[in-house]
Amino acid sequence: MKRLIILFIIIGFFTINYSIFSSTLAFAQSQTKINNSQAKQMLIGKHRLQLQWLSFWNRKEMGTIEIKETDGILSVVGKQTKGDDFLEITGNIVEINPKDFVFDGKIAMRVNYNNDGKPCIREGKQLFRISGARKFWRLKDMLNPCDNTTTDYIDIFFKDN
Question: Which pLDDT tens digit goes with each residue over 14-24?
Fold first, then answer.
């Protein structure tokens, strides 16, 4: 009986330590991969956010998005609203390159005259990229996944100086 108790104690010890080790390992793997430190500095902070259907390039109607770094992870939270319509972005940046970044999270939007007025949600990894001389990152996959016909321009602008 004593051997059985000692065996349970030993198994419990290794199980707890393995759990701590795996959590630490998983955390280390989830940190943002920085391939360009200048691009990282461009991303951290508050930016204007636009879904063209909600603001049509009118700066006063654009939303805001904030990118923060905590423990090596760049997190993203942003929102734009117009009446009952909205764009919401939440998640993390998993990789930063000179002209693009990989976002992993959720992009939810609703535009009353698109997709029969129903919300549309994108989840998972998405690429945002700077093209040419543009002063913003645009979601690369612009085809609306809910109706497969509408083109959505989701833009995160460079920080205002």
Answer: 444 444 333 33
